[in-house]
Amino acid sequence: MKNKRQAGFSLMELLVAMMIMAVLATIGIRKYQEFSANARYIKAHDTVKTVSEGLDMYYLKHGKYPDFTSFESMVDANSPLVKENNIPVNVSPADPWGNPFEGKSGKGGYVISCAGDPSGSADRPAFTAEPGKNTGPSGAAPTGPEKEPAK
């Protein structure tokens, strides 16, 4: 009688393969979470940038900034920024983490701010936008040339 070897994998081979897959899955999930958090941060920056550019366009047309007491009133469907097509209709008053953007404007200028990533990541800090200044995320989305302050 010949000694036939049974075809298949040993328990040790299966455990090694499962460990390799688990390590790769862990690395992949962490990278996915990191990219997802960066995408949320860039989305928040783009929203603030869109509204600040809308305010700047309003200023160029009327010679003053509109009076708003909150960011929500800036992006409301009845806002002059929306009615004059300076910003899109569907801008969310909340950042991608669900926290409200802060903002106000008056004849002399505006301030719009985002609290940043609530997990406290140093890579995604709070930022603000003001006329002539934009302290957005470094390396996230290009902010273009710095604007001259309104006089």
From TrEMBL:
Any Gene Ontology biological process: protein secretion by the type II secretion system
Membrane protein topology class: Single-pass membrane protein
Transmembrane annotation, as ranges: 7-29
Signal peptide: none
A GO cellular component annotation in the UniProt record: type II protein secretion system complex
Type II secretion system protein GspG C-terminal domain boundaries: 37-104
A Pfam cross-reference name: N_methyl
The protein, known as: Type II secretion system protein GspG C-terminal domain-containing protein
Lineage, broadest ranks: Bacteria, Pseudomonadati, Acidobacteriota, Holophagae, Holophagales
